[in-house]
């Protein structure tokens, strides 16, 4: 799975969306437009390599 979060200036992390990729490895994740800022993408790969 993949998670999208925004890192705020205060250091707070705000979760925006998460999901699983489709057969093509693609994912429609989060809002269509993102405000300028710092974002975090977290890839949960543990099960893939287990």
- How many runs of DSSP E, i.e. beta strands? 3
- Name the shape in a single word: flat
Helix-strand topology string: EEEH
> Any idea how many domains?
1
Query: Percent of residues in helical segments?
Result: under 10%
Number of helices: 1
Global Rg: 12 Å
Class by SSE composition: mainly beta
Low-confidence stretches: none
The average pLDDT score comes to 89
Main sheet properties:
3 strands, antiparallel
Strand order of the largest sheet: 2-1-3
Q: Strand percentage, roughly?
A: 35-45%
Amino-to-carboxy terminus distance = 15 Å
Observed structural traits:
single chain; 50 residues; mainly beta; 3-stranded antiparallel sheet; 3 strands; flat
Q: Can you describe what's shown?
A:
A hairpin with a 5-residue loop joins strand 1 and strand 2 (13-19). The protein has one domain. With 50 residues, the chain is mainly beta. It contains 1 helix and 3 strands; from the N terminus they run βββα. It has a 3-stranded antiparallel β-sheet, with no helix packed on it.
Short note summarizing the structure:
With 50 residues, this protein is mainly beta.
Summarize the topology.
Elements: E1 2-7, E2 13-19, E3 38-43, H1 46-49
Antiparallel strand pairs: 1-2, 1-3
